[in-house]
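Predict the 3D structure for this chain.
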Amino acid sequence: MIKIILMRHGQAKDAIGPDSARQLTDYGKQQAIQTAEYITEHYSPDQFVVSPYDRAQQTLAELSLRAPTVPVQVQNNITPSDDARTALIDLGHIEADCMVVVCHMSIIAYLASLLTGDSPESFALAEARVFEMEFVMASMATEIDRFVPKQPF
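Done. Predicted structure below.
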């Protein structure tokens, strides 16, 4: 069975410049650490896929510190307003048994919805959800786990 772990980035600073340049707050880095530790203690990722946006890259850095041999692929179509169907098709072309995808609301909620066929549900900051399926295709996955780190509210 294939696993896809969808992870939202940690808390980011308010936008001063372009959205793509937003940085994680110190709290967001701590959230990323909590989730990265959970993922690497419970699963064996063999591929990381990440948005090109800074806050997603910074979140992924915490995973890469704990699993330095896992290859990283930047996927340009998993930014906040991208089309989830197109992104899922591209994810389906990646050879991996346990892929971690680090991206953003709202695309992450739509990716999860496409995988399971359920209605979209918001992700908390740095939340990870684990989906299992025989192959990557819409409505073929079952959510088997989720982890939510400490939230700022």
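The two ends are 36 Å apart (CA to CA).
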